Structure formats: structure tokens, C-alpha cells
Amino acid sequence: MHLVRDAMTTRLVTVPPYTSLTDVAACMRDADVGCVLVTSDGVLHGVVTDRDITVRITAEGLIAGSATAHQAASGSLVTVGPDATVCEAAELMCAHALHRLPVVDGEGRPVGLISLGDIAGTPHAQEVLVALGRAQANH
Length: 139
Fold this sequence. Notes:
The chain is built from 7 helices and 5 strands; from the N terminus they run H-E-H-E-E-H-H-H-E-E-H-H. By secondary structure, the chain is α+β, with helices and mostly antiparallel strands. Helix 5 (86-95) packs parallel to helix 7 (125-137).
């Protein structure tokens, strides 16, 4: 089975927690990504996705310019290590309904990001789909 480090992307977009969501959205647009990692002193504190901005900020009637990355970030942070298997990452993503999973080192520093698309592109995609099917059957 492939390891997360073999499938993850290492092109990360990070912002400090106090970054305005207007700037976060501009970062997403400029980097052509759907999420940014919220970091402080190099340590991961959260993830903001384009959906988070829509659901947590816009739908609540908040003004994106005054809201911060910290306010929009997903509440519970789920991560995986680079030496986990792709199948383990897929099971985590399924269990927590995530499309992207930050990859962190032992000190909580982001080293990559693995997405469903990354997993689908691995030689073991079929095994991953079977594992996801088992995980969904257990819920």
C-alpha cells in the first residue's frame, strides 16, 4: 500500500489566524486552491475551505472582510502523518466527511495535503474504495 507521503501534494497555502477572509479568498483565487491552512509559528491550527467561507460566514450573515481565518476554520482538526497508508487516510476522510486532509509531522507542522483526487490517482485506488465501502457500512 502506498504511503500518504507518496500521494500528497506539498504545495501548501498557509495564512496566519488573524488573516481577513477577504484576503483568504484572494489567496485561494490566486493559488487556484479550495482551501488554506491556518498556521501560527509553523504549527497547523485549522483549515479554511471555500465551503467554510460560504457556510460559516456568508450564510450566517457575517461580513467576510471583518471575519478572520480563525473564525472560519473547521472546528475539529483531523490530520494524518506522512507515514500513514493512503487507505488509513481515506478511512479518516470518510469517517469525518472530509475531502482534504492535512498531513503534519510529529510537531504539528504541515508538510502536505491529501485529497480524494490524490487518493483516486494511486495504484491502490481500488483497495481504498473497498476500505471506504467498509467504513461507510460501519456507520
